[in-house]
Each structure stands twice: as structure tokens, then as C-alpha cells.
């Protein structure tokens, strides 16, 4: 990136926000000459007032009030002095470019150098969001400084990224053209040699021109990218892992939009397909593809990493998770955008049992959902959620309730993204007061992905298995006392229906390798033998064959607090688009 060009265009804030540290420079003071031994070589020294600085989490700018190089230095700024001598005496003063100082970007932080000499050629014009015009110091990869009594002074300013920045200054002896150099290293941030398992968190965001995708069969692009980043306790990106360190899965059972929706990742070494995928972060971030399913609505996606070893290929011992929502639409937003109105819904959970609720929008008398244009940003306006629950900006309330409370009221606000598609209209907003109740556990044990089992004997449809891809589905217990034991009927091993294994210790249902096409129903349509003697002759037609989806039912039992719930479940096998040439 050409920082000099950027600064001259007035894009100071873009450069500073992405930089790890900033350097501020100004000419040294005084004047004078040199003497001593004429043939003595130049000697250059570079010293810093201190060699470590705290993280600048507030984004404070250098100088007094952030706009000049004068005034007391902030706690994120350090002064550096460069001086050159001949036989212990200063080199001659010079208004020419005596010193050249630059940054070694291979060492650590992404930094920039700054003049703070008040000269207009070293400043850029910046327009703030409120319309005010400011002149700010320009940013450069390298600067040159005059010699005043053999010295010059500049400054180093920390940003919010930890690391080490190396600063090198040089001077050329005009007598023999030899270049002398000196370097220092400035460390930003504290070491964290022993992070605890709670030191990681996951951030997610959608990418691309819109914050939504489309359903299958809509004749529109039904893919969107979602990027997740993993940070440590100092808000720094985790190091690049050897194996996959981020697992993503589509959470089924909360919206019909999850039916047929899939995940993918183009990352090297990534694994999985269909409803889950594992990938590795690069510079702390990994990108996944969300493919819309058969129905529109919110697709709930969970991201998981392992705080123990930053690796999910060997299992997840200390899980750290986050949830995000991607909306799937049947058609592009019309020229007339619906208003935004939050729908009321019953919010009820149980003490010390996992809770998830996705806030949604009302429907008008024509069946249109009043949601404006996604994506949406949700926030808590007043009141509070029960202890243990949080409202995320994507409208998901999640957590484990830590108190029993009845009819607790709280108000939320939502803003859509109308301005991203119709900038002249601005984003639409709405508020709504919800009531939430957290009850004592009623010990109704059930599988979370199948609902609370209010209809006995109802079959729970799990994620669809796709021919040619491996199958994996993780079951979650709910109700009871929070401790669960599992079993399948029929028992596994051997494989259920010849292709599904159930791990009762981990509650994971998986296939033995890729799902085979032999699990589909093969339909034969007889051809016509023809009648060559007819007038006109009737030609013969061959038999035709086609695959049809096939459902496989069995039972998963979950036991907690001495109560067992037997849940009929179904895994439907669907084809990959190929057709048979014959039926067995």
C-alpha cells in the first residue's frame, strides 16, 4: 500500500486505523558545526526515551489534542533522537536531507512515519463525518530530516495492535559516500504467555455487497460469504494454526430456512460439507460460504473454536462459540421496501438450561414480513435480560439462564440496512418491549434440535444426507439436570440402516465415509417395445431410471435426572443430481 499517496489524498484515518503503530517526526533544534579529526568516520546513534508502550485501545492520536506535535506526550507516544558525530563532535548543520529514517515492516507492526514540522507539504486535508475540515499530519513509509547541530528528533506512537516495530535511521558521509545506520525496536503491548481458556472470543460478519442471500430455485445468487475472526485477551488475532481451528455448523430446528442450506469453505485443508465445515484462520480470520436452502428466513450459524489448543481437528475440549444469522430471500428487495416492525413472541426458558431465541419481524395482512432490508442490527434499549443471557447484534438471545424470574420486561431496538440499497431513504428502525420468563427445570428431557417433545411420537427430521458427501450431525440435550446419556435404537455399531454410526459418548451421528447412491430409491419406468408393423410404425423406447429421496427412521434416546425420552428421528438421503443407468 502506498501510504504517501494515501496521505496526499486525505485518507489519513483509513491508514491510521489499519496501522499497528504510527511514527511522528519533526526536525531537531539548535545549530552549529563540527570539528575534530577530519578523517574520523561518521558515527550515528538512535535512542528512544523508552522501548515499550501500552496498547492504544482508545485510538488516541499523537500530539496535543490529537492534531499537533506540541504539548506533553501521551502515554502511547515516545520520543526518539538521532544524532551523528565526527570524533565525538556534531556533524555540520544542514537544511538538506541529512538523516533518512524508515520502518522495517518484516519485524512486526504495520506502522507509518510522520512529520510534525507544521509545513503544509507534510499535511493532508481530512473531512470529518460532521463536515468539519481538518489538517492532519501526512503518513509516509520513510522520512528525511535535516541536521541541526548534528541532531533530529521524531516520535513513535502506538496503536491497538501488539508487536514489535523496528526503526532504522541512516546518514551518508559526503567524504567517502559510506552509509552509517542505527536501529531500535519498540515493543507495543504486554506479553500473554499463559492465556486461560476464556481468553479467546469469535467475531463474525457478512461480506459482499449485501447482507443476505437467496433461496434455491430463486434464479438469483444464493451464496454469501461470512467471515469469522478469533482474538485473544489482548484483542489480537490468534496465530496461524497448523490444522483447522474454526468449526461452523448450521443450527437446525429454529427456522425452515435451515432446510437445504449448506456451508462451504475454500480454505486449504478445510473439511466438511453440507451443514458443517472446519477451516483454518489466516491472520486470525477464516471465510465461509453460506448457500441458501429451500425456504426464506433466518439461517442460524454457530462458530466454534477450541481455547485449549487452537485446533478443532482433534476435538473441542474447551469450546468458545458465537452465533450469527444470515437471511435467505426468495426474491430481490422490491423498489417498495416494507417498513420494519418487530413481532412479539413468547420467550420462556428454564434455569441452568441452554437458551436460544431468534427475534423476528411481524407479518402484514398480505403475508409480507415487515423487515425492511437485511442485515439488521439489534440492541437492548432498556430493562435487562435474565442473568446469563445476552442479546447479540444479529438478534439472537443466547446463553444459560442463571436466575429464576417471571415476566421480566426489556425493550429492544432494531435498525435495518435500507440505506445500503436505498441511501436516500436511510435505515428504518423499530422498538418493542418483550417479556421473558425463566422457570424452574420441569425435567422434561428432550433433544434440543427436535423441540420440547410436546407431541409424543412425532418424528424429528434431522439434517439431510447428500450422496457423495460425508454426514455429521451433533445432538444437544435439553431439560433434566444438564447431564445426559445417549443411545440409539437399533444400537450402533453396527451401522444403523447400514450407513449411520451413533457415538453415544459425544452424541454425534455420522456416516461411514461418503453417503452412497445405493441408499436412494431407484425408480424404473418401462419403455415401449414398439410396433414396427403398425402404420405408421411405432418406434421402441428404452426403459428409464431415476433416483428418489429415501427416508431412514430410527430412535435416539436421551436420559437425564432418571428420565428417558425416546425420540423418533429421520435422516433423508437425497441425490447429488446424477441419475442411474439401471436399477438393481
SSE order and pairing:
Blueprint: H1 3-8, H2 12-18, E1 21-26, E2 42-48, E3 52-53, E4 77-86, E5 89-90, E6 94-104, E7 111-114, E8 123-127, E9 133-137, E10 139-140, E11 142-147, E12 151-158, E13 163-172, E14 179-188, E15 201-206, E16 212-214, E17 223-231, E18 246-250, E19 262-264, E20 276-279, E21 285-291, E22 297-306, E23 319-329, E24 347-350, E25 355-358, E26 377-383, E27 389-391, E28 396-399, E29 405-415, H3 418-421, E30 429-439, E31 446-447, E32 460-461, E33 465-466, E34 470-474, E35 477-478, E36 485-489, E37 500-503, E38 508-514, E39 521-525, E40 544-548, E41 550-560, E42 563-574
Parallel strand pairs: 1-7, 3-14, 16-23, 24-30, 32-42, 33-42
Antiparallel strand pairs: 1-12, 2-4, 4-5, 4-12, 6-11, 6-13, 7-10, 8-9, 13-14, 15-17, 17-21, 18-20, 18-22, 19-21, 22-23, 25-28, 26-29, 27-28, 29-30, 31-35, 34-38, 36-41, 37-38, 39-40, 41-42
Tell me about this structure.
The protein is built from 3 helices and 42 strands. It folds into 3 domains: about 5-190, Immunoglobulins (Immunoglobulin-like); about 195-440, Immunoglobulins (Immunoglobulin-like), CATH 2.60.40; about 445-575, Immunoglobulin-like (Sandwich), CATH 2.60.40. β41 (about 550-560) and β42 form a beta hairpin. The protein is mainly β. Strands 1, 2, 4, 5, 7, 10 and 12 form a 7-stranded mixed beta sheet that branches. A 5-stranded mixed beta sheet has the order 3-14-13-6-11, with no helix packed on it.
Properties at a glance:
Immunoglobulin-like; 43% strand; single chain; disordered N terminus; seven-stranded mixed sheet; 42 strands; elongated; mainly beta; 584 residues; 3 helices; five-stranded mixed sheet; 3 domains
Amino acid at each position: 500500500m502506498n501510504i504517501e499517496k494515501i496521505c496526499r489524498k486525505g485518507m489519513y484515518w483509513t491508514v491510521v486505523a489499519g496501522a499497528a503503530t504510527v511514527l511522528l517526526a519533526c526536525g531537531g533544534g539548535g545549530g552549529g558545526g563540527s570539528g575534530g579529526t577530519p578523517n574520523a568516520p561518521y558515527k550515528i546513534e538512535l535512542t528512544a526515551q523508552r522501548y515499550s508502550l501500552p496498547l492504544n485501545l482508545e485510538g488516541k492520536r499523537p500530539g496535543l489534542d490529537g492534531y499537533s506535535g506540541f504539548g506533553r506526550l501521551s502515554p502511547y507516544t515516545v520520543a526518539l533522537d538521532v544524532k551523528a558525530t565526527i570524533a565525538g563532535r556534531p556533524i555540520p548543520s544542514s537544511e538538506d536531507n541529512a538523516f533518512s529514517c524508515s520502518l522495517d515492516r518484516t519485524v512486526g507492526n504495520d506502522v507509518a512515519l510522520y512529520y510534525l514540522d507544521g509545513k503544509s507539504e507534510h499535511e493532508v486535508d481530512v473531512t470529518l463525518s460532521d463536515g468539519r475540515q481538518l489538517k492532519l499530519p501526512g503518513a509516509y513509509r520513510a522520512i528525511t530530516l535535516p541536521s541541526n547541530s548534528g541532531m533530529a528528533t521524531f516520535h513513535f506512537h502506538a496503536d491497538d495492535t501488539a508487536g514489535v516495530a523496528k526503526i532504522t535511521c541512516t546518514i551518508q558521509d559526503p567524504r567517502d559516500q559510506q552509509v552509517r545506520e542505527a536501529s531500535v525496536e519498540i515493543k507495543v503491548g504486554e506479553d500473554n504467555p499463559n492465556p486461560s481458556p476464556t481468553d479467546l472470543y469469535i467475531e463474525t460478519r457478512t461480506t459482499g455487497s449485501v447482507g443476505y442471500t437467496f433461496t434455491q430455485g430463486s434464479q438469483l445468487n444464493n451464496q454469501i460469504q461470512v467471515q469469522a475472526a478469533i482474538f485473544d485477551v489482548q484483542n489480537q488475532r490468534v496465530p496461524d494454526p497448523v490444522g483447522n481451528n474454526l468449526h461452523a455448523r448450521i443450527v437446525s430446528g429454529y427456522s425452515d430456512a435451515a432446510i437445504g442450506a449448506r456451508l462451504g469453505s475454500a480454505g486449504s485443508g478445510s473439511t466438511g460439507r453440507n451443514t458443517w465445515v472446519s477451516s483454518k484462520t489466516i491472520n486470525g480470520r477464516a471465510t465461509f460460504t453460506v448457500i441458501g436452502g429451500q425456504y426464506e428466513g433466518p439461517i442460524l450459524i454457530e462458530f466454534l473454536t477450541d481455547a485449549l489448543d487452537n485446533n478443532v481437528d482433534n476435538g473441542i475440549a474447551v469450546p468458545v462459540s458465537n452465533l450469527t444469522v444470515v437471511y435467505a430471500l426468495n426474491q430481490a428487495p422490491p423498489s417498495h421496501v416494507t417498513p420494519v416492525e418487530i413481532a412479539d413472541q413468547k420467550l420462556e426458558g428454564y434455569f441452568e438450561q441452554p437458551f436460544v431465541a431468534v427475534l423476528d419481524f411481524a407479518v402484514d395482512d398480505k403475508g409480507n414480513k415487515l423487515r425492511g432490508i437485511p442485515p439488521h442490527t439489534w440492541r437492548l434499549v432498556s430493562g435487562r435480560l435474565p442473568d446469563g443471557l445476552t442479546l447479540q447484534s444479529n438478534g439472537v438471545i443466547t446463553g444459560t439462564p442463571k436466575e429464576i424470574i417471571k415476566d421480566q420486561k426489556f425493550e429492544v431496538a432494531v435498525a435495518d440496512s435500507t440505506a445500503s440499497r436505498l441511501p436516500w431513504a436511510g435505515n428504518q428502525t423499530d422498538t418493542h418491549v418483550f417479556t421473558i420468563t425463566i422457570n424452574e427445570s420441569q425435567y422434561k428431557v428432550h433433544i434440543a434440535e427436535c423441540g420440547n417433545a410436546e407431541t409424543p411420537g412425532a418424528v424429528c427430521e434431522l439434517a439431510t444426507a447428500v450422496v457423495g458427501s460425508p454426514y455429521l450431525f451433533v445432538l444437544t440435550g435439553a431439560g433434566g439436570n444438564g447431564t445426559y446419556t445417549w443411545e440409539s435404537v437399533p444400537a450402533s455399531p453396527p451401522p444403523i440402516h447400514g450407513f449411520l454410526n451413533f457415538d453415544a459418548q459425544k452424541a454425534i451421528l455420522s456416516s461411514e465415509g461418503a453417503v452412497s447412491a445405493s441408499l436412494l430409491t431407484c425408480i424404473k419406468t418401462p419403455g415401449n417395445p414398439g410396433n414396427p408393423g403398425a402404420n405408421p410404425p411405432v418406434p421402441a423406447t428404452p426403459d428409464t431410471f431415476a433416483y428418489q429421496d429415501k427416508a431412514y427412521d430410527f430412535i435416539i434416546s436421551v436420559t437425564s435426572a432418571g428420565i428417558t425420552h425416546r425420540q423418533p428421528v429421520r435422516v433423508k438421503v437425497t441425490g447429488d443430481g446424477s441419475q442411474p443407468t439401471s436399477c438393481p
